[in-house]
């Protein structure tokens, strides 16, 4: 098969993995040899019309697979055309793309062929050749296989910047039904093993006093591990999805949990729901995920009052919380502690830091907030500034939601299922 | 008021600006009396439309423009677009034919960097000589965390400062022909000597180095104005993110950083053959004066390659050892295509998911202005146009029949299925009686792994943590439950409490290898909060649930004495909520098993806040362990 055709098949097969991050790994460059660099910040070299960043060459080694996961386009019983890269083909493609500055590196995953160890050995082989033979210093993200041997995992961690293993479903029961060969508990044990090794590598680096000793610490996935959950392919509600995320973040120190709204695939399984969930659901989950990790919200706070365990599609979860807790507002922008400012809809974490620094020298007025490019109509009902106080009954008005909620926009179209959205075009 | 004209050496000449600014400052020349110029750029004066907000200016200059202050300078809108390009663009440099095989452009002045001192965004600026701290007068207390940066060059007897100020101000930079406008005035040089040395926060220097690359012709004046204010009673200005000048400076720096980031992302190299081998050439159109500063990024990334980046106002060339800056080029100077662009476009088209069309999100991050230099962008209209049909077709087609030839499961052995329902109802002694203890322990572990009657909270734990140690160990230690690290490792007593326990065992003369250690409850019970898992004590129900399994485990190991660590273990073995301080250190005979010996849990020692009681309790704990050891000796 021609290389171009293989690339089409194996990129098409890989696109349902949302992650394309290339940030947060150790800093290195090619001045002492080899090719490539990583400087901490991820770089998106292109964006596809689906709005997703293209940072890495994201492909499968092969889309042949003995697993029969209903949500997956590559499942054993699917009719898709199968292809397989050879190791030299994939290494060459990565380097050719990298030299032309198309990509930051490689994100390699694979269907399971023959056995977990055989598959993992193939995946690790590509990374090994890139690093050892070509001195590749760019970013490598490898998908790991839960049942693969510890030696292969250690080797994968030595070459990769990030490792990931997808939890796939928010609930163990759903995974059992949709992916009969996958084992929820084994996936989690695998995440635990990765966390233990990542911790060990970090500790080794931290305790090594002499710079020379630093190199002795066992390198293991310096950019950490991440996972992905398909949303909308099973009946799990947002509370269940976020509950699983909270547990995974706390237990395995994941860098990210990616949510992937189940989207129609060619050659779908009959076990799947006929209609995809609205893309906006995925967006709301990401917003809630951010509130949990960076804004000091607890899951119960975000989900309190949520109908049917689902986040409100109409307004973002922070605004939804504020509308349910009007007694906590208005907050005085010149006096309130950080935790309270972080709860004001429309104030981001960076803005809060700026306000905290600025107010030590000057009192903050409404025009100052405008200068920080904040939306005053959205903010002012919840804030007291040096020259503003919300009118007496504003916070008690039943139509406050209408006043502060974003007007129906292009983004509103995302609230509808994809099919309806497409019919409008 | 006399105006002073300053001519800088280049559009992003921070070192030149800094030298001049410190002299102007020392001579007490106010911002409104300075006109900054760069060859080929229109002058930037505050009087031309961006007068600082009078409300925030402590000393409003007398000749302030009457025009009202615009909160945001239209010159730096959200997208960072600079004013009308025709006024700010560098004048057309006579185009020089690029001799790419030579690795440098024929033409104007070029500067070389050795391979080891490649510039990057942070260190490409020639830093002024450092000043001994004694020369620095801090008229205002510094803010914590801000390292003051010296701007006092003119005030100390350094050779540079001895030269007359007016001379320096009029002297052109970098060998340019003197073209200084309005250079008829000079400040009183006597003022230089008397002025105390001002210092500025590090944050100002960092921000200035970036902001000075902005295309806005007023950047130098804005920087000097902020410097002036920092030195005149507003030392904390950099922290006032809401100040109009700071807002504007931040916006400029942000636009420059974004431009640099987009350059890292959207430069596309095309390979050409030359006599010396392949060279990678790119045509790129940055918005600001970033090429020289960002060339270092490409050197670090592609050090072994030979490459050129051509832009309208300058070009950068790397020959594998040295970087050369050359004049601007034309789009036509770059190669037209590259053999790999077809493959790249094939990848771009295939990674796109037509069922998730979000073209606005794409345009926000990859603005249309970059598209003409991106080989993949020509596919975008077609991909967008075809997406609805492709997605609708997938939905319509619906589920498909399984493939006739399923992917073969050649070497894949399924995990054996354990029928847990059968074992649950069976009497416990069926497994423990007349069985080799090691096998019995393995069977017990397997049985527990397959349990489907576990308390629901155990679903949050990673795995069951079973006991470990030699069969027949004289001492068996029972803790409470696995913690975070035990849950991750799948082994008991490996976390902070486990490490303290090991240390205490050693001091008591007991080898960890000789002892069997386990927990009353075999899963980690916790409350997930943000980034950590908060330990939650098992309740009476949990203890009762695990109790039969613990008893069987103890029976199989067959110790002479069971040491219970903490209240949970004591309760699990005695069946009663007993107080540890009334029972510890004494052997308690049991009716249905080996005697028990209660003491505290090592995590209790970790929790004690004051070092004295910690040391005392630790000694007591070791005394207990020694006592237990003597009981079985």
Short description:
The complex is a heterodimer of chains A (425) and B (633). In chain A, 39% of the residues lie in helices and 9% in strands.
Describe the structure.
The complex is a heterodimer of chains A (425) and B (633). Chain A has 425 residues and is α/β, with parallel strands linked by helices. Chain A has two domains: 3-273, TIM Barrel (Alpha-Beta Barrel), CATH 3.20.20; 308-413, no CATH class. Chain A is built from 17 helices and ten strands. In chain A, strands 3-4-5-6-7-8 form a six-stranded parallel β-sheet. In chain A, strands 1-2 form a two-stranded antiparallel ribbon. In chain A, strands 9-10 form a two-stranded parallel ribbon. In chain A, helix 2 (87-99) packs across helix 3, helix 3 (116-133) runs parallel beside helix 4 and helix 8 (238-252) packs across helix 9 (279-294). Chain A starts with a helix and ends with a helix. Mean pLDDT of chain A is 88; it is low at 409-425. Chain B has 633 residues and is an alpha/beta fold. Chain B has three domains: 4-88 and 104-261, no CATH class; 341-390, no CATH class; 420-632, Uracil-DNA glycosylase-like domain (Uracil-DNA Glycosylase, subunit E), CATH 3.40.470.10. Chain B has a six-stranded mixed β-sheet, with helices on one face. A five-stranded mixed β-sheet of chain B has the order 14-13-17-19-18. Chain B has a two-stranded parallel sheet with strand order 1-2. Chain B is elongated. Chain B starts with a strand and ends with a helix. The model of chain B is unreliable at 44-150, 152-194 and 409-432 (pLDDT under 50). Chains A and B meet through helix 1, strand 1, strand 2, strand 3 and helix 2 of A and helix 8, helix 9, helix 10, helix 11 and helix 12 of B.
């Amino acid at each position: 098969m021609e290389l171009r055709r293989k690339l089409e098949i194996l990129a098409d097969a890989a696109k349902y993995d949302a992650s394309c991050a290339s940030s947060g790994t150790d800093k290195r460059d090619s001045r002492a040899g080899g090719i490539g660099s990583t400087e901490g910040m991820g770089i998106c070299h292109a964006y596809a019309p689906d709005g997703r960043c293209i940072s890495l060459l994201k492909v499968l080694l092969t889309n042949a697979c003995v697993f029969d996961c209903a949500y997956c386009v590559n499942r054993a019983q699917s009719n898709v055309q199968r292809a397989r890269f050879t190791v030299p083909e994939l290494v060459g493609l990565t380097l050719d793309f990298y030299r032309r500055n198309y990509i930051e590196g490689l994100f390699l995953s694979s269907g399971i062929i023959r056995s977990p160890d055989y598959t993992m050995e193939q995946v690790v082989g590509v990374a090994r050749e890139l690093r050892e033979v070509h001195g590749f210093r760019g970013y490598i993200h490898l998908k790991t296989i839960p049942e693969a041997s510890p030696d292969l995992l250690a080797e994968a961690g030595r070459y990769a910047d990030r490792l990931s293993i997808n939890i796939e479903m928010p609930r163990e029961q759903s995974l059992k039904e949709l992916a009969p060969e996958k084992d929820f508990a084994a996936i989690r044990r695998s995440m635990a093993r990765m966390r233990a090794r990542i911790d060990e590598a970090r500790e080794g680096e931290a305790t090594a006093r002499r710079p020379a000793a630093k190199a002795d610490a066992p390198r293991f996935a310096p950019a950490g591990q991440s996972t992905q959950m398909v949303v909308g392919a099973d009946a799990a509600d947002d509370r269940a999805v976020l509950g699983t995320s909270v547990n995974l973040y706390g237990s395995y120190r994941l860098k990210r949990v990616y949510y992937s709204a189940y989207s129609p695939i060619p050659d779908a399984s009959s076990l799947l729901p006929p209609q995809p969930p609205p893309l906006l659901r995925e967006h709301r989950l990401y917003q809630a995920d951010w509130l949990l990790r960076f804004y000091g919200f607890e899951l119960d706070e975000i989900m309190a009052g949520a109908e049917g365990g689902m986040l409100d599609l109409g307004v973002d979860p922070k605004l939804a919380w504020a509308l349910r807790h009007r007694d906590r507002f208005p907050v005085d922008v010149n006096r309130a502690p950080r935790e309270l400012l972080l709860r004001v809809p429309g104030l981001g974490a960076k803005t809060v830091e700026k306000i905290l620094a600025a107010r030590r020298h000057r009192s903050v007025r409404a025009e100052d907030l405008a200068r920080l490019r904040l939306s005053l109509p959205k903010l002012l009902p919840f804030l007291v500034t040096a020259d503003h106080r919300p009118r007496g009954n504003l916070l008690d008005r039943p139509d406050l939601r209408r006043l502060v909620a974003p007007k129906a926009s292009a983004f509103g179209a995302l609230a509808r299922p994809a099919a309806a959205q497409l019919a409008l075009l | 008021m006399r105006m002073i004209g300053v001519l800088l050496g280049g559009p992003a000449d921070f070192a030149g600006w800094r030298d001049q600014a410190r002299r102007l400052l020392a001579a007490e020349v106010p911002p409104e009396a300075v006109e900054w110029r760069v060859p080929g750029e229109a002058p930037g004066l505050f009087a031309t439309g961006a007068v600082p907000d009078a409300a925030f200016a402590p000393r409003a200059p007398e000749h302030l423009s009457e025009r009202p202050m615009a909160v945001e300078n239209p010159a730096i809108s959200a997208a960072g677009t600079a004013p009308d390009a025709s006024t700010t663009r560098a004048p057309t440099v006579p185009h020089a034919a690029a001799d790419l095989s030579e690795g440098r452009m024929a033409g104007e002045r070029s500067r070389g960097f050795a391979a080891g001192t490649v510039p990057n965004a942070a260190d490409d600026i020639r830093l002024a000589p450092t000043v001994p701290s004694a020369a620095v007068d801090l008229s205002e207390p510094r803010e914590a965390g801000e390292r003051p940066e010296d701007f006092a060059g003119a005030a100390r007897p350094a050779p540079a400062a001895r030269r007359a100020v007016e001379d320096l101000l009029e002297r052109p930079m970098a060998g340019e022909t003197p073209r200084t406008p309005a250079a008829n005035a000079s400040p009183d040089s006597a003022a230089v000597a008397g002025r105390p040395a001002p210092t500025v926060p590090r944050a100002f220097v960092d921000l200035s180095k970036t902001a000075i690359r902005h295309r806005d012709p007023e950047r130098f004046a804005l920087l000097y104005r902020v410097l002036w204010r920092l030195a005149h009673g507003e030392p904390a200005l950099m922290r006032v993110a809401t100040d109009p000048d700071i807002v504007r400076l931040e916006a400029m720096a942000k636009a420059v950083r974004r431009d640099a980031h987009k350059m890292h992302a959207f430069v596309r190299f095309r390979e050409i053959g030359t006599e010396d081998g392949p060279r990678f050439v790119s045509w790129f159109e940055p918005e600001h004066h970033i090429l020289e500063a960002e060339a270092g990024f490409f050197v670090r990334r592609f050090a072994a390659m030979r490459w050129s980046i051509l832009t309208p106002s300058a070009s950068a060339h790397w020959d594998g050892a040295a970087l050369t800056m050359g004049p601007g080029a034309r789009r036509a100077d770059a190669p037209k295509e590259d053999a790999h662009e077809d493959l790249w476009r094939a990848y771009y088209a295939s990674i796109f998911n037509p069922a998730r069309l979000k073209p606005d999100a794409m345009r926000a991050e990859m603005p249309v202005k970059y598209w003409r230099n991106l080989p993949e962008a020509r596919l975008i209209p077609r991909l967008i146009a075809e997406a609805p049909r492709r997605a609708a077709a997938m939905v319509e087609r619906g589920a498909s029949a399984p493939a006739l030839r399923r992917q073969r499961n050649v070497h894949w052995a399924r995990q054996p299925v354990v029928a847990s329902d059968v074992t649950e109802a069976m009497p416990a002694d069926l497994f423990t009686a007349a069985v080799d203890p090691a096998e019995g322990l393995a069977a017990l572990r397997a049985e527990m792994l397959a349990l489907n009657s576990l308390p629901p909270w155990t679903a949050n734990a990673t795995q069951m943590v079973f006991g470990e140690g030699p069969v027949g160990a004289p001492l068996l230690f029972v803790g409470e439950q696995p913690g975070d690290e035990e849950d991750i490792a799948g082994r008991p007593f490996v976390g902070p409490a486990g490490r303290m326990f090991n240390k205490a065992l050693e001091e008591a003369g007991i080898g960890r290898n000789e002892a069997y250690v386990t927990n009353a409850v075999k899963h980690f019970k916790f409350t997930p909060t943000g980034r950590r898992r908060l330990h939650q004590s098992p309740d009476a129900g949990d203890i009762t649930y695990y109790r039969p399994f613990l008893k069987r485990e103890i029976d199989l190991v067959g110790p002479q004495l069971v040491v219970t660590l903490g209240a949970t273990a004591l309760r699990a073995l005695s069946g009663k909520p007993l107080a540890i301080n009334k029972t510890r250190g004494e052997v308690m005979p049991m009716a249905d098993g080996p005697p028990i010996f209660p003491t505290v849990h090592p995590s209790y020692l970790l929790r004690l806040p004051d070092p004295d009681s910690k040391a005392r309790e630790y000694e007591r704990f070791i005394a207990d362990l020694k006592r237990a050891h003597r009981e079985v000796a």
